[in-house]
Automatic annotation (TrEMBL):
Species per Swiss-Prot/TrEMBL record: Acanthaster planci
Source taxon at top rank: Eukaryota
Pfam families, A to Z: RINGv (PF12906), THH1_TOM1-3_dom (PF06454)
Protein name: Uncharacterized protein LOC110976320 isoform X2
Molecular functions (GO terms): zinc ion binding
Residue stretches making up the RING-CH-type domain: 397-463
Chain's gene name: LOC110976320
Entry keywords, A to Z: Membrane, Metal-binding, Transmembrane, Transmembrane helix, Zinc, Zinc-finger
Keyword Cytoplasm appears in the UniProt entry: no
InterPro entries: THH1/TOM1/TOM3_dom, Znf_RING-CH, Znf_RING/FYVE/PHD
PROSITE patterns according to UniProt: ZF_RING_CH (PS51292)
Length: 600
């Protein structure tokens, strides 16, 4: 009985409170102690005014997201245009996975930005349709990623160094998207023609999108886990075939894979691989990105299902909890689309992105791409001095060449430290001045692979010393770093004065949002700058350990012309020669081989 009395008194108090609130909060909020607590989309004493700050804030976020993806798409097209031997815009606009993802995210972000900008001016049906348009566009992006990973997992002949578009899974991608947009068009038609409750129709179609997203996220996580967690699939077979496993390993794999299914042979290839070949950094990046997107999709499915059942539970929740639900819902929507420009940040080089090239999980692939990639004319290795050529028709010629540094090519230099052999290279790139190599490592400090030789892939032997981070800053870098610190310190102060001078919700939201974005950009630049400076300082304090070269090497080259004479050169191993014989006289510090020339 006491319980029933308590419930009755509570209802009476709520009724009395609502009587004290003006206009009963216009049906857009709850009344507490005579004060209206408005829903997120409304404001004012009677909750009858539109909350401009809410719509402006999320509208700006989606406009910025669309602008960012547009810039990335333009850079991607420009990069493809510059790579063509015969440049043409038609070929540069060829559809690829990367370009289509950018385009779909642009359209999705624009649809949601227009909704927040024009919602108050649009009819209810149009606003509801524009609100639902966001989900099939994102589902198209996710289905494209799933199909791309499925091809990487199943197709061993797929080229990952130049990610193009879908091949065998294109039909499945088209079928899934046809179903998506049939539902979207059906929603547009039914909302405009039928006289049913528009909210009920919107909930039905949102439930369909939630069901399709549930199916999609299952495949997204299945293929993502197989490729980036278990590191299985056809792309691993392609990697091992191009990186020349030892004969014993290949034979063992072939023997074990006889009578096995393709998936089992893929597993065997992974077992035979060297675990050191996996790039731990790229592996962790891919796993974090995969789990983050998977979690966001699961949350989106839950929010969509809650929106379907909203009439049953919304009125029973206090307005504050409903507002928290709405804000979290919008944040998840932003995160779903924001994930794509983040993982596709290298718009000019899609082959270096883990999402479009799973072989980036392997360290050796990264080294080979750098050493065997596009050959530029300013490459120090390709532009080194060439030895004089010899005419094979002359009777004899002799050219003597001394050891030289492959960086400075200065034989008389004495201020660059001793000449050393820091790696396993032979020939023209075997020797280098200690200070020349040290300076080159400092200039390449932002590249973690610079501590390896680009030719033989041997790691330089370094002796650590004490590093001072301030010595790693260059003049230009130090200036921009100080400027970033100043902007980070002055941004909040500027926002405070703007809000004091212009006390408006719109101005406050815009200024705070711009300040947050500016702080994020400056913080990212500051982190990169400090890391680069620390790497420079640490490398500057290192001492490179290598084999000392005390005496100069003389290379004597002898050429013979008679084609009918048999000439044989014998060194540590015998190799036949027909027209040209090179005889190398090595110093004791470099070689102990004895070279003899025999004529018959």
């Amino acid at each position: 009985m006491w319980r029933e009395a308590t419930v009755y008194l509570r209802k009476m108090m709520e009724a009395s409170n609502q009587e004290n609130c003006p206009a009963n909060c216009s049906g857009h909020g709850d009344c507490h102690d005579g004060v209206c607590i408005c829903e997120l989309e409304f404001q004012g004493i009677e909750c009858e005014d539109i909350n401009n700050a809410y719509f402006v804030a999320f509208g700006i976020i989606f406009y910025l997201l669309s602008t960012c993806c547009t810039i990335q798409l333009i850079l991607c097209i420009q990069s493809d245009f510059s790579r063509l031997k015969n440049p043409s815009f038609q070929k540069a606009l060829k559809v690829t996975t990367q370009k289509l993802l950018y385009f779909l995210v642009i359209i999705a972000a624009l649809s949601r930005a227009l909704y927040f900008s024009l919602q108050r001016y649009l009819p209810e049906t149009w606003a509801s349709n524009m609100l639902s348009m966001y989900y099939p566009l994102l589902l198209s992006c996710f289905s494209l990623v799933v199909c791309f990973w499925a091809e990487a997992f199943h197709l061993s002949d797929k080229q990952h160094s130049n990610p193009g578009f879908l091949r065998d899974s294109f039909c499945y991608f088209i079928l899934f998207n046809v179903l998506l947009y049939i539902l979207l068009v059906a929603q547009f038609i039914t909302m405009e023609t039928l006289s049913f409750d528009h909210q009920l129709l919107s909930n039905i179609f949102n439930g369909c999108f939630a069901g399709l997203m549930t199916i999609e996220v299952i495949f997204f996580l299945v293929y993502g886990v197989e490729v980036f967690f278990k590191i299985k699939g056809a792309f691993t077979v392609n990697y091992h075939s191009t990186n020349q496993l030892p004969a014993a390993d290949i034979g063992q794999l072939n023997v074990n894979s006889m009578g096995q299914s393709p998936d089992q042979s893929h597993d065997l290839s992974v077992i035979g691989a060297n675990i050191k070949s996996v790039d731990v950094s790229i592996m962790h990046q891919s796993r974090i990105g995969l789990l983050f997107q998977g979690l966001l999709q699961i949350l989106m499915v839950l929010f969509l299902m809650l929106s379907v059942t909203e009439p049953q539970w919304r009125e029973s929740l206090p307005v504050l909890k409903r507002n928290v639900h709405d804000v979290l819902f919008r944040i998840v929507e932003v995160g779903l689309a924001l994930w794509f420009p983040c993982v596709l940040w290298k718009s000019r080089s899609p082959e270096s992105l883990w999402m479009l090239n799973p072989t980036r999980l392997f360290r050796q692939t990264r080294d080979e791409e750098k050493s065997q990639g596009s050959k530029k004319e300013d490459d120090w290795l390709l532009c080194r001095k060439r030895a004089p050529t010899y005419d094979s028709t002359t009777d004899s010629s002799r050219v003597e060449k001394e050891l030289e540094c492959w960086i400075c090519y200065d034989l008389q230099r004495t201020d660059a430290g001793p000449m050393i052999q820091p790696c396993e290279c032979k020939g023209d790139v075997a020797c280098v001045h200690h200070e020349c190599l040290k300076r080159w490592l400092i200039e390449s400090a932002d590249n973690p692979e610079a501590l390896h030789c680009k030719v033989c892939q041997a790691e330089y032997q370094l002796k650590t010393g004490s590093a001072c981070i301030w010595k790693g800053f260059q003049l230009k870098q130090g200036f921009f770093t100080a400027l970033a610190v100043g902007i980070m310190a002055g941004g909040p102060v500027a926002v405070y004065y703007i809000m004091e001078k212009y006390p408006s919700d719109v101005v406050s939201v815009v200024s705070i949002g711009a300040c947050i974005l500016l702080e994020i950009v400056c913080l990212k630049y500051l982190g990169i700058s400090l890391c680069t400076a620390y790497n420079r300082a640490s490398i500057a304090s290192l001492r490179i350990i290598g084999k000392m070269v005390n005496k100069q090497e003389t290379i004597a080259t002898t050429t013979t012309s008679p084609p009918e004479s048999d000439v044989t050169a014998t060194a540590s191993r015998t190799e036949p020669s027909i027209a040209i014989v090179s005889v190398s006289i090595m110093s004791p510090e470099l070689s102990s081989n004895v070279v003899q020339v025999h004529r018959e």
